[in-house]
Amino acid sequence: MILPNYFLADLPPEATLSPQMIQEACQTLKRNREQYLATRSTPQMVKLISELAENWLQPDYPFRQFALEHGPAATGFAHATLVRGLDAFFQELTRENLHTLVVHELGHAHRLDEMCATAAEARLQRAAMVRGPELLVHIASGNIPNPTLLSIILGLLTRSAQFVKCSRGASFLPRLFAHSLYEADAKLASCLEIAEWRGGDIALEDPLFAEASCVTATGSDETLAAVQQRLPKSVRFLGYGHRVSFGYITRGVLSGFGVKKIVVRAAEDVISWNQLGCLSPHLIYVETGGSVSPDQFAEKLAEELSRYEVDEPRGQVSVEVAATISSRRDFYRVRASASSETQMWSSDASTAWTVVYEADARFQLSCLNRFIYVKAVASLDEALNYADAVRGQVSTVGIAAQDDEAQALSTRLGRWGVTRICPLGQMQNPPLTWCHDGRPALGDLVEWIGWEQ
Amino acid sequence: MTTTSIFSDHAARLRQFMARSLAAPEPSATVLNETFSQLALEWFALQFQHNAAYQAWCKSLEASPETVAHWADIPALPTSAFKELDVTSISLAERTQVFHSSGTTEQRPSRHFQHAESLALYEVSLLSWFRACLLAEVKEKVHFLILTPPPSSAPHSSLVHMFETVRRELGSAQSKFHGAMDATGAWSLDEAGLQAALQSAMDAAQPVMLLGTAFNYVHLVDRLALEGKIFNLPPGSRALETGGYKGRSRSLPKSELHQLIGERLGLAAEQIVCEYGMSELSSQAYDVGPVGAESSSQQARRFQFPPWARVSIVSPETGREVQDGETGLVRVIDLANLWSVAAVQTEDLAIRRGDGFELLGRAVTAEARGCSLMSANR
After folding, report:
1. Are residues B246 and B125 in the same domain?
2. CATH class of A18-242+437-452
3. ipTM for the complex shown
4. Which of A35, A224, A310, A355 has a 20 to 30 A CA-CA distance from A206?
């Protein structure tokens, strides 16, 4: 398959973008939106997106095949990691889920199409509709492709023209998705632009921001601040800062036959997107006092990661990443040689996976790429005490707990400040209705128009 | 023999090796290799026996003097061990000095313990290789302009100790420290004094040698740029720069820094020399070889340790030595590290170039504690 030059990201590497190209692309997007996108209905969009997602799940779909064939070289993720990540993402995009998303966040299935009223609104003799941004600009982060693809989906639902600015070397999957959209509906795809440059290029970004109605950005706090500061006042800004996540396992589930399942789930959270997303765990807190102790759990997790390496290998990393992992391993090996409070298990003759067990429960950021900490705690309160350094920056906690414990744990976590709690093993698979950083993803994009009848 | 005399005996033999390896005529590579190999294995056996932290490390790797037959297989102790453990054979009572790593970003510095005898060996190592690489053609004392604070302000800096040793043993009477340390521990330059010294060197047409860290030089060239000043140092002058910014100034690519130093001080590229050293080691590498050896200016500049310290560049992925031209982590076996541990695994990335290396810098977020959320960035 050869991808034609439909998008800026398709241009050969030697082609240089100019401010004028960006400005013209934005104006074309807006014109095309007026003509081809603004008039579409929500059911039409839902049908199109869900059918496209279904295609992506088919083994013989050419774009999927292309992604899996060339993805390892283009993204650094191994074939199996891409399969796992793409499947998890596209399985969520069903007609039903998309419909639920609209109703869940906007209160009414027709909200994006016309003035409408829920029963409660009708009683108050009110109606409302919402309007998406005319030109939605995404400053995408380079870590993993899912958030960028989701941003595009949401923008399609709000019928916005979209300009997706990818990080250097990170446009491969967004670009492929855009091509698949082009094949499904070329007119719709003409309302979408994908480009790639190193963030902070003021000459290119100024015209982009000048044309934008709303800008979303994912990245470090510094990146977000830099983008926001350069936006014209009239442009709405939605920033998603880097977040960290962790796992929590209660002693109650660490006995009997269930243990194996928990270990597998923990391993799946570590291998999904090689742990590189904000939703991936940096560490897993394990309660003491179960029939499997935290260090025993760590050892089992190591065995599981070793098994996964056979079928879903982590793949190559840069020498800098390998050096970081190797230096960190050395650090913990030194500790382990001096004290049994630290133990480490790691892949032989590679940096493919590492498990560090520490009795010291202070929250520790991982260097990722399948490097996971297991730490022992007596209770959730103790874990949260030790995690105080990252309080307010935690996105997801994946929990493994007995049914009668889960409610109290979740409430406690919510009060403490996390924004998402899910079963261990599902950390990288948020539902479509997930509130990104605690905010309604679709709801934050739109403006409301109220009608008092 | 007592433990003390065993170490003294080893030190004496190393001094002999140092002297012989740099004497004319230069010994053959075979002789150097054999002697180095023999000493390295003996050092390993000695350190394994007398250094508890190192022994525990070796045991965790299932290595011991019985299992290691080649010097390249001697277990290298990570530099992070110098932060966590007492990596020394010097008893608590005998320790008279400790060198700390200088990183301001690190919560816990490395500690390299010393006593009179270990410092004496350190100084022989330093001075022999410094002379061979930088002063082979210089007979008279050198006028050093040192950009760091003096030892009285920075008693635990191995770099300052190095410069002080060089000043004391090789420097002329005017040689001086032109740096100071403020209340926050930040290093600054005595700009006026330094500029006066530069000016008088020019007036007298006497060459000088500047010694400083990369960020010292940034402070200097930024100030000179601000004042619009350019010095044209007399022929034979040089600047020795040792890497690392540690957040103490804006950081520049090496080529850019050297260009600025060259412009502001009137030095050609070959008059600017880089040093690679660390508080955990007792020998240094320079990116100019000893004069008289194969001409280093013909090749790309690469760091070389003296014959009593050998470097290997190992793949962080596999732990094996990389091929020439490939990138890996710097590992050093420094025999002058007699009372601590000779085989040290650093966190620095470098490209292997023959028996030397081209430095790339520290692997990011190598420090485990206290790293920022930025490590979540890919």
Report:
1. yes
2. alpha beta
3. 0.87
4. A35
